[in-house]
């Protein structure tokens, strides 16, 4: 047991599991943005928030597609960041950006558990960003 604990302490398996969890989450979120049911689900959220300008600018479907593209770039960046930390930095910054934008909707929309979970994503994005920053630009 002691050997296993020591091995775990020296490994990066925790960061890898965290990264893969976010990749899966954003893979799913980004890909459902291309379907009508998600376009419809986003209407009450976006229409009643400061993001409503996107509907005027892009329309309902293209707003959903834009969100899906940003989320896709985020998870692809995180995936590539497994081996190339500079891509991981891009992915984690996009995760942070999407989470901050989503959390900014809380005052306008009231408590919503789906939106509230993005507070956790802010912390996750910061952990992944710091990890990849240390890998991309080591201080030693």
Chain-wise SSE layout:
Elements: H1 2-10, H2 13-32, H3 36-47, H4 53-80, H5 85-103, H6 106-109, H7 113-116, H8 118-136
Helix pairs in contact: 2-4, 2-8, 3-4, 4-5, 5-8
How is this structure best described in words?
This protein is mostly helical and 140 residues long. It has one domain (13-134). 82% of the residues lie in helices and 0% in strands. It has eight helices and no strands. InterPro entries: RclC-like (IPR007339). The chain crosses the membrane at residues 12-32, 52-80, 87-107, 113-131. Keywords: Membrane, Transmembrane, Transmembrane helix. This is DoxX family protein. Pfam families: DUF417.
- Quote the beta fraction: under 5%
Number of helices: 8
Order of helices and strands: HHHHHHHH
Uncertain residue segments: none
Distance between the termini: 32 Å
Overall mean confidence score, pLDDT: 93
Largest sheet: none
Radius of gyration: 17 Å
Share of helix, binned: over 70%
Shape: elongated
Number of strands: 0
Number of domains: 1
Structural class: mainly alpha
Q: Could you list some keywords that capture this structure?
A:
140 residues; elongated; mainly alpha; 8 helices
Summarize the structure.
With 140 residues, this protein is mostly helical. 82% of the residues lie in helices and 0% in strands. The protein has one domain (13-134).
């Amino acid at each position: 047991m002691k050997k296993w604990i020591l091995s775990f302490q020296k490994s990066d398996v925790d960061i890898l599991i965290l990264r893969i969890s976010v990749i899966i989450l954003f893979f799913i979120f980004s890909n459902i943005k291309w379907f009508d049911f998600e376009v419809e689900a986003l209407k009450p959220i976006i229409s009643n928030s400061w993001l409503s300008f996107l509907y005027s600018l892009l329309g309902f479907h293209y707003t959903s597609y834009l969100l899906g593209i940003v989320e896709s770039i985020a998870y692809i960046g995180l995936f590539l960041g497994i081996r190339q930390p500079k891509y991981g930095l891009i992915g984690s910054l996009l995760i942070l950006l999407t989470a901050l934008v989503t959390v900014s909707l809380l005052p306008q929309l009231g408590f919503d558990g789906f939106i509230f979970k993005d507070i956790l994503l802010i912390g996750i994005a910061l952990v992944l960003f710091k990890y990849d920053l240390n890998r991309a630009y080591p201080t030693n």
